[in-house]
């Protein structure tokens, strides 16, 4: 599924959560994900409100511990416990992004950062809740119109700062934004961190068949426009829709397998869609490998530099390709007590749409059998005699020597 956002008044964690719940994300499933973090004293509910004549869903988050100051590492440790695993991964990424930008601003390691305004336990509910709602809706791609930024100033523990706040601006690196005459903060650090963590692409509405639309309500009210976040859920237009991609290639004949494996791992971690090698024969009949990296056009400069730096190659080729990919989501089922992850995607055959499910390796791999026990060594003639006749060890030793020497005695007699 594709999610497209139109943040005409900005975005916050609770606005995004409200919009996703309005699109049909099951509230109980979202609550279960938050419960899995063992967060004490919290409540999550929804309200249907009218914002300047627009019906919107407001996510209402209440926590008993209203302190907004705590170490970022405490929030990260909490959201890491969320289940299922994809929810924990996304929520951890968002909270980690906040810790990293705050650390960069204050010259601290992310693990030592003490959060002030966004250190509340409601941040756990917002980040885990959004991650769980996206997982429940099967969202695989998020697109957004430019983010509307406010102006003026914001008041925080460090005093009066220009809007947007410094941490928010750092979190918006690479995002498309547009200035407005709205006063104050319109994009919160939590909202910006979530958009970064889910890999939001800032584009016009992508080609899709619209399934549903909802509005997430914000808390503030603006005289110029309704403070709501428009969210549209859709499926890609047909299976023939192709996505433009770039394949980067270089031939290497002096790089070890360990280095190639390292380069592939780094390329995938840097956002490449895929990376692989194929065997080849180069000049002078040298065996070599062709390294391939598949990526989006905007990722080409960074990944080209990575490949050149890690392989020592003196050049790299590129060619444009089109990729057709089915929307998919990862689910987990339990089979005989073992969690099995699988990819689920719609497939079209004979004008009818069905769902294809493929278990993911290695979670679906059979358990490795226990190594066979080594066979006991064959008993010596001495031991066999002891066991059968219960003879004494000295007698057994003499018998053993006779067994070893009698062929030589016979041979010596025959030769003599």
Low-confidence stretches: 389-394
Give me the Rg, rounded: 32 Å
First and last CA, distance: 95 Å
Bin the helical content: 25-40%
Based on CA inertia axes, which overall geometry fits?
Answer: globular
Layout of strands and helices, then pairs:
Elements: E1 2-6, H1 13-22, H2 27-35, E2 42-51, E3 54-63, E4 70-71, H3 72-79, H4 85-106, E5 114-115, H5 122-137, E6 141-144, E7 147-151, E8 153-156, E9 159-162, H6 166-171, E10 177-183, H7 189-197, E11 201-202, E12 208-217, E13 228-236, E14 243-252, H8 257-269, E15 274-281, E16 287-295, H9 300-311, E17 317-323, E18 329-335, E19 338-349, E20 352-359, H10 381-389, H11 393-415
Parallel strand pairs: 1-6, 6-11, 7-10
Antiparallel strand pairs: 1-13, 2-3, 4-5, 8-9, 12-13, 14-16, 14-17, 15-16, 18-19, 19-20
Q: Which tags fit this structure?
A:
single chain, five-stranded mixed sheet, 11 helices, alpha+beta, 33% helix, four-stranded antiparallel sheet, 416 residues
Short account of what is shown:
The protein has 416 residues and is α+β, with helices and mostly antiparallel strands. It has helices spanning 13-22, 27-35, 72-79, 85-106, 122-137, 166-171, 189-197, 257-269, 300-311, 381-389, 393-415; strands at residues 2-6, 42-51, 54-63, 70-71, 114-115, 141-144, 147-151, 153-156, 159-162, 177-183, 201-202, 208-217, 228-236, 243-252, 274-281, 287-295, 317-323, 329-335, 338-349, 352-359. The chain is built from eleven helices and 20 strands.
